[in-house]
Amino acid sequence: MDRPRAHAAEIGQHRPVTLEDLTRKKDRRAQDRAALDALLDEVLVGTLSTVTQDGRPWVVPMLFARDGDRLLLHGSTGAGALRQVAAGAEAAFCAYAVDGLVLASSMFDHSANYRSAVVRGPLVTLTGDEAWAALDAVSDGLLPGRREEVRPMLAKEVAATVALALDLTDDNWILKVRTGGTGEDPADVPADVWTGVVPVQPAYGEPEPTPGQEALPVPASVERLRFGRGGIPDREDHRSR
């Protein structure tokens, strides 16, 4: 066994790796729950990871929404790997946003301003009225107001969807944040090399109607999405639940 694998095995024999085991840039850990909520309310897609019954890693990108103290996810009941986490297997969910590219005087010192969160724990399968409410909350979180513009969900559609919840507790999440500039001493930066930060901002483009529907007005939910604060969707509907 090579040394990296042997070292990993030794760690596994002594104790499980926890969210406290940051090995680099520990000063970037943020303990602010409000900052965590802001990130989870802003981004639309995260990655859900687990280990399948055959011991192999599994990860998939998923749309999600925050509903108070829990994350809500959903998928098809026919998704085989998703059934693993629906049955209570330990999982980790990651969401992140890149806020800027940090350009230094050397490629080695280039970086990015970012916010990244990992939440770990078992997911709970929601059923009955809870499943209906969760799917409504996901809809409101991703595109507030859209539910009122379309027909209600059908019972068979809810039955074909697995609704999952991952609790946000005091100790099952970690948030890392990098802000600011290059951190270089200005005296060390060559006079002819531009350095600084290039902000990265999400934006929504011009809506593209389905062919034949060009004459229909753009719905209010889409207008709010496009022209909300900073081009970021207004997801206040579910933040405080």
UniProtKB/TrEMBL annotation:
It holds the Pfam family Pyridox_ox_2. Signal peptide: none annotated. Gene3D superfamilies: Electron Transport, Fmn-binding Protein, Chain A. Residues 200-220 are annotated as: Disordered. InterPro entries: Pyridox_Oxase-rel, Split_barrel_FMN-bd. This is Pyridoxamine 5'-phosphate oxidase family protein. The lineage of its organism: Bacteria, Bacillati, Actinomycetota, Actinomycetes, Propionibacteriales.
